[in-house]
């Protein structure tokens, strides 16, 4: 399945998406984000995940250009922010993101948070962008099962991806099973729980057994659960190390030990109560 950094999962529309990528949440606009994107791509990463609210799309675009890797070999994701939800405003937000990135198209465009009332209108805009060939795949982020069911009930095109908080303290088993049944690829943000999990004794015990770092164990656990993962780092050594997870496999027993760490605990907002920046 996933035996290299270039390994891909096939989305339900046939588009191939890398299993592994670089997230740039909280990476500063300017040289910090330019360098981390450039370094990641030069070390073989193909997938970069940003969002309008991260305010670093320009730097991401510059990092892409400076990497020297042809655009068509890369997989670039961005997201529409809460205050831009709605049909026309989403189409506008997409153009803004594309201009900042300096790209002609996106590989994946996501609704960043469900909010309460506008995500169906927003989704119609994403369907239009998809049909017009402006984006190769469309999806959502932070959607729970009830949001997905509601969206799918009236959607023409089913979301291809759902990017959510996912890590050993929030294993999201029901959501993962639902997405797998529906052919929606689950993707993990904050896979290391913002570094909190790196000192977990169980994970470190497993890491010692495989002679890997705690981060590598968690990221491998993502992949073996069939979840795309996008850890963030700005250090070259860490960017390289995070991706060095294709030469070993966790045993079923170790996967279960990691599953056993679940506490249904979030480091980010709960999608049902997250209302920051919504105009609805």
UniProtKB/TrEMBL annotation:
EC number: 1.1.1.-
SUPFAM superfamilies: NAD(P)-linked oxidoreductase
Homology family: Belongs to the aldo/keto reductase family.
Keyword Transport in record: no
UniProt binding sites for substrate: 112
Species classification: Bacteria, Bacillati, Bacillota, Bacilli, Bacillales
Sorted UniProt keywords: NADP, Oxidoreductase
UniProt-annotated site: Lowers pKa of active site Tyr, residues: 79
Residue ranges of domain NADP-dependent oxidoreductase in the record: 30-262
Gene Ontology molecular-function annotations: oxidoreductase activity, acting on the CH-OH group of donors, NAD or NADP as acceptor
Pfam families, alphabetized: Aldo_ket_red
The keyword Oxidoreductase appears for this protein: yes
Name this protein carries in UniProt: Glyoxal reductase
Superkingdom assignment: Bacteria
Annotated active site: 54
Source organism of this protein record: Pseudoneobacillus rhizosphaerae
Gene3D superfamilies (alphabetical): NADP-dependent oxidoreductase domain
């Amino acid at each position: 399945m996933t035996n290299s950094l270039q390994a891909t999962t096939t989305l339900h529309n046939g588009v191939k998406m890398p299993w592994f990528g670089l997230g740039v949440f909280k990476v500063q606009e300017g040289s910090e984000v330019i360098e981390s994107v450039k370094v990641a791509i030069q070390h073989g990463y193909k997938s970069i995940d940003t969002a309008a609210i991260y305010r670093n799309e320009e730097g991401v675009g510059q990092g892409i250009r400076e990497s020297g890797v042809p655009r068509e070999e890369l997989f670039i994701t961005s997201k529409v922010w809460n205050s831009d939800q709605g049909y026309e405003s989403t189409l506008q937000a997409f153009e803004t993101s594309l201009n900042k990135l300096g790209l002609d198209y996106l590989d994946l465009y996501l609704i960043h948070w469900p909010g309460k009332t506008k995500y169906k209108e927003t989704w119609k805009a994403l369907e239009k962008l998809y049909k017009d060939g402006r984006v190769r795949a469309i999806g959502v982020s932070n959607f729970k099962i009830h949001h997905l069911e509601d969206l799918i009930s009236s959607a023409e095109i089913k979301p291809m991806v759902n990017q959510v908080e996912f890590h050993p303290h929030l294993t999201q088993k029901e959501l993962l099973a639902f997405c797998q049944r529906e052919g929606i690829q689950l993707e993990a943000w904050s896979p290391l729980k913002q570094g909190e999990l790196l000192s977990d004794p169980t994970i470190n015990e497993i890491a010692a057994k495989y002679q890997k770092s705690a981060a590598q164990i968690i990221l491998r656990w993502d992949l073996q659960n069939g979840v795309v993962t996008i850890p963030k780092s700005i250090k070259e050594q860490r960017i390289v190390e995070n991706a060095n997870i294709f030469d070993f496999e966790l045993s079923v027993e170790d996967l279960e030990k990691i599953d056993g760490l679940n506490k249904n605990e979030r480091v980010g907002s709960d999608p049902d109560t997250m209302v920051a920046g919504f105009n609805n």
